[in-house]
Each structure stands twice: as C-alpha cells, then as structure tokens.
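**Backbone shape codes:**
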Amino acid sequence: MFSPGPFISPFANPFPMPVIGSPQPQTNNLPPIPQELNLPRALNYYADFSGCGFWRLIWPEHLLNANQRMILHGSTVMCYDPNYFRMCKTVRVQRQATPHQLRFIKFLREISDKVGFKIIYEIDDICFAEDIPEYNKFKPAFTDPAIRKTAQEIMEMCDEISVTCDFMKDYYSSKTSNKNVTVIPNFPPKPPQPPIHILPVLPDQYRQNSLVSPHQIWPDHIRP
C-alpha cells in the first residue's frame, strides 16, 4: 500500500503529511475594542459647583459613570475644537447667560448638526430679573439688560430646556419661544451608605464576621 510518506504501512502513515492547500487558522491581530466606546457620551457645562450644580449635574454624573451607564464629563472650559465633541450625544449647559457664553452656544449650534448632538439648557430657578424677588441676594447678577437678553437667546437656541417642576416649565414656556421644556424633579441621589433601616443590624453582622470592634469604625451618631 502506498502512502504519501516514505514508509509503506498497512495501517497508517506514522508521519502524516499535511494536506496541501488546507486553510490555515487566521489570527486576529486587531486590538480589542474598549468597552467605553459602546457607551453613550455626553458633556455638562457647569455654572456652579454647589447647590443646583452639585445635585443636578455633578452627583448624577458620578453615578452614571460609576455604574457604566454612559461616559459623562463635566467642565467649565469652553472648547472650540469640533473634534472634542465627536461621538457626543448631548451637551447640557447650566444657566449660561453672558455674552461670551452666547458666542460659545452659537458655536455649538453651528456644529451640532454636523457632529450629531443636541443642546439642553439646564435651569433650576428664575433667572429673569423682572421676576426675581428683591430679597434674593443674587438678583444683582441678573439685572444687567445684556444678561437678560442673552439668557433668553441661549434658551431659544437650545433643543430642549430642563427644569425642576411644572411651575418652571410653564414659566419658561411662556417667557421664551422654546416649548420643548422637560421636568426633571430634584431628588436625593442614591446614597453611598446603606439605607437607614438596616443600620441597626450592621454592627451585629460585623461582629460575627470580624475580630475588630465596630466601635472603631462607626461614627458616633450610629454607634451601637
């Protein structure tokens, strides 16, 4: 019996020869795609870092990033490079009202259709001077007629306005030509600590699973 090897065997060739022209496995040399590339991307532009800026932008931003729901970045730096906004779904601007902020919003409006993102104006309070009460110590920041004019112009250039309640929705719908106003209520975000109702049982659970006394780690107001 003849075989493709140099030896004759009635059973099989002890030195099997590869089939000529058989397909070879292909190796994928492409680098893996980072997981974050498949997440939606958005930008926040803050007007402040406390109060409404913290509760309505910064803390939700941290939670969305930490839970890998999206890539959300916050800043106060106005970047005029269109490449910075590529793959961005939304740019949310908080209480922008000055002339130089208006110029930036015009830039965003110009490139938004090309890049493919929408602009949301975030406002949690009344910023038109004629309706701000006199006892409000921050009213002088909005009494300049230029601020009044640019604030409304920016709102009307945006795709959407986000507010805190139905009263604010009706207010800005009547004060501006932008009728796409969405209510996002204020509420405490998910706390980084356990719910209050399970705090009493935590020290006991800790004692059962650790040699360290819970008195060494618990604050005074919840110490057992």
User: Anything to note?
Assistant: The chain has two domains: 35-183, 194-224. The first strand starts at residue 41 and ends at 45. Strands lie at 41-45, 71-75, 88-94, 118-122, 160-163, 181-183.
